[in-house]
Amino acid sequence: MKGDALKGHLDLLVLSVLADGPQHGYAVIEALRERSEQAFDLPEGTVYPALHRLEKAGLLISEWSVVGGRRRRTYRLTPSGGTALAELRTAWTDFSSAVTRVLRGPAWNTT
Amino acid sequence: MEHDLIEAYLVELRHGLPGRADLDDVLAEVEDHLRLKASRLEAGGLDQLEAQHRALEVFGNPAVVARAFIASPDVPGAVPTRFTKFSGLVAIAAGLAWINLIGLIEFGLVTMLVSASTVRPFAIGAVALTVIALVGSVQRAGGFRNLVIRLVFTGAAIFALALAVPVWMGDAVLVSLLSAVSLLTILALRGSRTGQFGRGRAAMVFQGAWVPTIALSTLIVGWQLWALDVLDWTIDYDALLSTTGGAAGTVGWSMFVGTFGALVLGIAVFATGLIRLGLTLFREPIPDFDGMSISGAG
What we know:
Largest sheet of chain A: 3 strands, antiparallel
Oligomer: heterodimer
CATH superfamily of chain A: Winged helix-like DNA-binding domain superfamily/Winged helix DNA-binding domain
Number of helices of chain B: 13
Mean pLDDT of chain A: 86
Helix content of chain A: 40-55%
CATH topology of chain A: Arc Repressor Mutant, subunit A
Distance between the termini of chain B: 39 Å
Order of helices and strands of chain A: HEHHEEH
Number of strands of chain B: 0
């Protein structure tokens, strides 16, 4: 699945991954890949602007540490991020259910 | 390492994000990711060069990544648009218009063939272009985000209108207007932490240095007039300049070097700053990576 297909959904996915606990960007991207079973194929570098955007929106907070001589930035969900994630999950569930119903076709076809 | 692909990539990414306030953090984060990825690929059996190559391949083209970062500015709404790109061209035109004005002023001073009324239409044109360019730069900096920027911009607009009635305000308008638009530019760009404007901002700040220079020269002229016992607040300085033999007289020399010299220097620096700002605005790619976000989160 190319990046275009993720438009509008990347923030939800990133928030969802970080709901499991603080992680750095690399780990977030790895989690996205693993959880999607390699389905999401987008340039890894484009995930970082999304992380920054979410942080500016107050949904994430980050802190720096030094690991192996390199600076590393770790992100975690804020309370606002948790609320936003819950809302986005509900919206996505409603949306995907509606799409599924449409794709399934009229009810009389299944009887 | 003899050939560090990651280092080269970071240099390229840096060029794609010139002057960004958080550039060091962005590059540190990207480097951490790339080196971690490469080391894991190496552990999986790839040689160092191949591992770096693969890590960079999946990370994305630096131009694409840079555009994604530009679309995620420090200040909400501070992104390049078609208008900011257009205003870059206008800023270049404004800079050239100011340089043209310098030529007219210099030519006029030397030959006495160019009057103030001849210069004013060109000044109005330069001012109009400058105001448009400044609107673009303010938009690029995130818009009229605070009262100070709004007030100063209104002041600049009032001065621009005042320039339309030069008989009333005379040459002082040009000096005042330059001060106003300079201040606007400084404030607008200082408020932007999105980078891209570092050099333009520095030029504009430097440009402000000519204002105290003019104040100093005015004091010198005042002292000279006082010493000559001809101090008169209603004095026609243009007439004085010509009747004292222009640059030949002490007063004329002071006025020429102090006031007009500083004015010409100020305009030159201002014009250069505008052209550099214009080039920056014009060269910026308009981000097309506006997806992958939720409403309200960006």
